[in-house]
Fold:
Amino acid sequence: MTTPAAQASAAPPAARAYRRLSVEQRRAQLLDAALHLFAHRTPEEVSFDDVAEAAGVSRPLVYRYFPGGKQQLYEAALRSAADELEQCFAEPRAGALTWRLGRALDRYLAFVDEHDTGFSALLKGGGVAATSRTGAIIDEVRRTAAEQVLVHLAGTGADPGVRLRATVRMWITAVESASLVWLDEGKTPSRDTLRDWLLDQFLAMVTATAAGDADAARVVRAALALETAEGPAGSLLRRLLPVVGGAGHLLG
Structure:
């Protein structure tokens, strides 16, 4: 015979959590449910009833916390996702730069993988949920990610300069675009392969910038001095040599 205590312990987590949650805990619960739904459906496909069902609460309770309707809920969920994305690029300033960026990309691509539909719908724009506020949130993520990368570059003690800062921002845009293409292509190649390719792009972009800018050159030289033969920079150089080996005539 099942005791009342056993029945309570077997209840769904959301049902047990319906009571005794603080305002902050309840709001976090609703945002978590909404973010999961927005991750796998477009905003237009998610209703308050869906969020209430996912959280195990009533529809009026969702309205109580988000009286501005679905748009307010979507923007709050987006803000929560943006906070998580911004943390993807937070990395201790130790070791070779490419290893640090590789770990950041692993976290970023794991987020993209987990929130595939929502990530794609968000960055492709359009839809009733797209507003100047949602655009500002996404722009903030891009700026924060670029600033995190520049913090690591600036850790060499030299000012990256205008051109290198612009290059990093361009690379962040490339990461975003590559993520969308990856989703469109059914998540092929593997996440690890995509990460390594994006690291190659970063190295190619910053070294090309350094070739024509003294400020960038100082920073890139200092960063490359920390790289190892076994790391991404060494690997790229070994793969490049056979490709450019036949272009010696270009040196005049």
